[in-house]
Write a structure and sequence with these properties.
It is a single chain. By secondary structure, this protein is an alpha+beta fold. The chain has one domain. A two-stranded antiparallel ribbon has the order 1-2. The termini are far apart.
Length: 104
């Protein structure tokens, strides 16, 4: 898909973004950032928009890193399970080959 422009609003401010992705995806991302900023605005004592943006970025980065770590861990678990299953199949095939040999 070629780039397109997408209009979004974050904390009442309009932004025109150039998007390589689906415009709806970009709007969803902007909505997520807006919601995160709104929640921080409610729970934080600061009204400085720059500080709120940094806090939101840190929160999103933390969430991303935690999910990435969990994803990597699950991939490793699945690879280990895959290897265990392959070993079981290999062992079963070896047992079958031995039992199919003619008696001497």
């Amino acid at each position: 898909m070629t780039g397109s422009t997408v209009e979004v609003v974050i904390r009442g401010r309009e932004y025109t973004l150039r998007a390589e992705n689906d415009p709806d995806y970009v709007r969803d991302l902007a909505r997520m950032v807006d919601e995160r900023l709104a929640n921080l605005e409610l729970s934080s004592k600061t009204v400085d928009s720059g500080r709120l943006a940094v806090l939101a970025a840190l929160n999103l980065a933390d969430e991303y890193c935690r999910l990435k770590k969990e994803y990597t861990s699950r991939i490793q678990e699945m690879e280990q399970e895959q290897q265990r299953l392959l070993d079981l199949v290999d062992a079963a095939m070896s047992d079958e080959e031995i039992s199919s040999l003619p008696d001497l």
